[in-house]
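Subject: Re: docking follow-up (pyridoxal-5'-phosphate)

Dear J.,

Thanks for your patience while I sorted out the input files. As discussed at Tuesday's group meeting, I've set up the holo structure prediction with pyridoxal-5'-phosphate included as the bound ligand rather than trying to dock it afterwards. The sequence and the ligand SMILES I used are pasted below, so you can double-check that they match what you have on your end before we go further.
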Amino acid sequence: MNIPPFTLERYFAKHEFSAKYLLSSSDCESLSLTEMLEMASPEMRKTFFDLKLGYTESMGHPQLRAEAAKLHHGLNAENLLIAAPEEAIFIFMNALLEPGDHVISTFPGYQSLYEIARAGGCQISTWEPDEAAEWHFDLARLAELIRPETKLVVVNFPHNPTGYIPSQKEFADLINLLREKGIYLLSDEMYRYLEIEAGATLPSACEAYEKAFSLFGMSKTFGLPGLRIGWIATQDAATLAKMLQLKDYTTICSSAPSEILSIIALQNKDAIIEMQNARLARNFAILDEFMAARPNRFALNRPRGGSICFPRILGVENTLEFADTLVAEAGIMIAPSHVFDYGHKHFRLGFGRENFGEVLGLFGEYVDTIS
Ligand SMILES: Cc1ncc(COP(=O)(O)O)c(C=O)c1O
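The structure tokens for the complex came back this morning:
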């Protein structure tokens, strides 16, 4: 397979473990192993310490699938395949798509959501938001992009990198449109439950549509990306079976300790999600104040959810050069819009980390000195 480098991942690989301060991470603050085991029931703690480190079931630990299925109303363990989120995208695309298929994806976005399909010989169209309308993704525009050979639409809400979420009605209309045309839907829901406004949480697409595949996992909302656990939930048993066959060529099965820790996290989901949202709300207030103090430097469409947003920087020609200088001079890493193949005017800010206020303060000092 001939696939171009994953620009964002390569940029992170260069700076994530050497920059002093990270200001673009998309995951919420991670929990430690100690914290996880403290919140585990005595039974699960025993399960963890007695665990034999053998291979596990390819579909995923049955208890993990059952706990995860509770996040997708009406679906059960049989409707889920466990895999690392990125792996799940990879095997899903390979299971569903054929060369020549037409795929429409929200853009800018997480590169694998369209690149894997392109590398597999599919035609790609991008569904792009309107920055002047608060990053609105217009359904009429999506309808125009649909062709007779369109097989799959890929969406990601809350959206990485803008934090956009459509209204409940728009999301229902989107599903109705796809159902009318018989088009599959991959709904990347990695930032679900991080909605800023109450009532903005969309239904998981797999609940609402029989041709939908919902991607979720432990990485972003739970702040546990090091577990490398996620899943695809769907009513489409045939495609799920094909995905399972492909998983034999990627990881075969997931990591045994990660599965147990994910069960523990899911058993404590309300507490973890509440804790992450409390931190996000605190950081969001700091961000609001920061932006309000600098109207001539930044233009930000406030995110509706997730842990990231996508400000435009004013008076800077090229955010890639700006980001490279910033990390070299001040040790602060941001993700320039170049890594999303989206020009040079924006950058991604992540506000899910504990030290966000401190790092944003340092970033403010830096930008206030440039002309
Ligand atoms: C929208 C989106 N989907 C999928 C992923 C992949 O998640 P993971 O890195 O845990 O495999 C990411 C990670 O950044 C993401 O932002």
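A couple of observations from a first look. The mean pLDDT is 97. The pocket of pyridoxal-5'-phosphate is lined by residues 26, 84-86, 110, 156, 160, 188, 190, 217, 219, 225 (CB under 6 Å).

Let me know if you'd like me to rerun anything.

Best regards,
T.
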